[in-house]
Amino acid sequence: MSAAVVSHIIEQHAEEAAFLWVLRSYAVHAPHYRLKDLAKLDNRVEAHLDGLRIAGAEGWELCAQALEIGEAGEVFAAGLLALESKDPQKLVKVLGVAETSPEACKGLISALGWTEPAKLSGTVKQWLASASDFHKFIGISACSIHRVDPGKILDDLIQDADAPVPLRARALRAAGELKRRDLIHGLRACFLSKDAPVRFWAAWSVVMLGNRNEALEALKTFIVTGAKQFPKALPILLRALPVDQAGALLKGLAQYPERQRDLVAGTGMIGDPFYVPWLIKQMETPELARLAGESFSFITGADIAYEDLDADKPENFESGPTENPEDENVQLDSDEDLPWPDPVKIQSWWSARQHRFQNSARYLLGAPISEARCRNILHEGFQRQRSAAALELALMNPDERLFETRAPGWRQQGQLQADS
Question: Where is the composition biased (Acidic residues) (predicted)?
Answer without folding.
Answer: 324-337
